[in-house]
Amino acid sequence: MRVVKGAVDRSLQAIELLAREARWMRMSDIAAELELEKGPAHRVLAQLCEQGWAEQDEQTSQYRLTLKLSLLGQRFLHGLGLPGLVQPILDELAAQCHELVRLTVVNEGTLAWFAASQGAAPGLMYSPSMHSPIALHATSVGKVWLATMSNDEAIGLALRGGLGQPNGAGTSKAINSVDRLIPELELTRQRGYGLVVEEAEPGVVAMAVTVRSLIDGAIVGTMSIAGPVLRIPPERYDAFYALLREASAKLGAVWPRQSVDRHVNEAA
Questions:
Q1: What does CATH list as the number for 7-66?
Q2: Do domains 7-66 and 76-261 have the same CATH topology?
Q3: Could you report the per-residue pLDDT of 119-151, keeping only the tens digit for each?
Q4: Can you give the residue ranges of the IclR-ED domain (predicted)?
């Protein structure tokens, strides 16, 4: 049975596409991605432009998002108080380990980068993008999150995230099959943290733990320490793991689950 999508569905899908691409796009490319004819695609984009969600370049006729969505997101997060609660904890951990510390949040069946703190000295910084998608099978944050699930659930998420695909995320050292993923998840469960050594990027090691809300025990995100292999040898793993566990407990204690519930109830 063919599912007919409404105007709201098409508009939201267009916003998600433009946010994901974060660049000027031709209408024909947008229509193809959304599986729409050019006429309906043009009407969706015209409506988004009229409402201030998107803009069209007068010379090229291409489209991109305005900052309206980003500003609304910032207002929502500041309303919850989350950035102000987590940043001091990340800063403290970065000062202790002298490396990059990053926090992800669980969002729509995957992880998304949320906040970071740089502890390395200028000139020695490892500073990757905070906007790139997270390959669950090739990152420390992804591995430790998958390890909290059943193998079947973890495999499903990893496959949807690109596991086993040609030219997939990560280096040649990254896990590229289900057969390699399962023992890695078991090892992650045993030691308590996710670990990648030159799997996500050459010359970089990262380790991560989950963050659980103390209110209900739900996993709300993950936190990692990352830096050059030469600065994070295996001899430092135990010390970094202890720092991560301590910081994770602090995050879980301040995570504003009650604040989130209050905002949801107010909107209902």
A1: 1.10.10.10
A2: no
A3: 988 877 777 778 788 999 999 999 999 999 999
A4: 68-257
Two tokens at 75? 């207002």
Answer whether 145's CB lies under 8 Å from 222's CB.
yes
Which pTM does this prediction carry? 0.70
Superfamily of domain 76-261 in the CATH hierarchy: GAF domain (3.30.450.40)
Which residues, including other chains, have CB under 8 Å from residue 151's CB and lie 6 or more apart? 182, 185
Please write the tens of the pLDDT for every residue from 70-96.
778 767 766 666 778 899 999 999 999
150: Cβ–Cβ under 8 A, 6 or more apart, which residues?
none
Q: What b/e sequence results for 226-251 when a residue is b if at least 16 CB atoms lie within 10 Å of its CB, and e otherwise?
A: bbeeeebeeebbeebbebbeebbebb
| Domain assignments of the chain as residue spans, ordered by start | 7-66, 76-261
Separation of alpha carbons 214 and 68, rounded Å: 33
Give every CB contact of residue 241 below 8 A, 6+ residues apart in sequence: 191, 192, 193, 207, 209
